[in-house]
């Protein structure tokens, strides 16, 4: 499926199993695109507070992703891959309600890993974002 930005195409080939979540197996980037690699985005709020609640960190992280994309004149449609690092079980109902609102019916490719810790002890989730535009 081509997106409106004419730089990215996303696919789920029919010869492999369907995605087990809301992501695309294949993301193809036009050879004329510029690549953007962002530092991991965390659940910090605009006042530099990191909430203790995991789901609030998820909400803040997704908002921070939209904001950092916007700082480069990009939208969520430009995201090609997100790696998700979490220190505790993800509440997928909450996560996907925000994820689907941000990325819509053709979400980027995704990898999820559960790890023991992140850069600060209070962090519970961090998203590593790659984009092209």
Automatic annotation (TrEMBL):
Gene Ontology MF annotations: hydrolase activity
EC numbers: 3.5.-.-
Keyword field contains Manganese: no
SUPFAM superfamilies: YjgF-like (SSF55298)
One Pfam family in the UniProt entry: Ribonuc_L-PSP
Keywords of this entry: Hydrolase
Transmembrane segments: none
Presence of keyword Hydrolase: yes
Entries under Gene3D superfamilies matching the protein: RutC-like
InterPro entries listed in its UniProt record: RutC-like_sf, YjgF/YER057c/UK114
PANTHER family reported in the protein's UniProt record: BLR7761 PROTEIN (PTHR43857), YJGH FAMILY PROTEIN (PTHR43857:SF1)
Protein name (Swiss-Prot/TrEMBL): RidA family protein
Origin species: Paenibacillus rhizoplanae
Taxonomic path: Bacteria, Bacillati, Bacillota, Bacilli, Bacillales
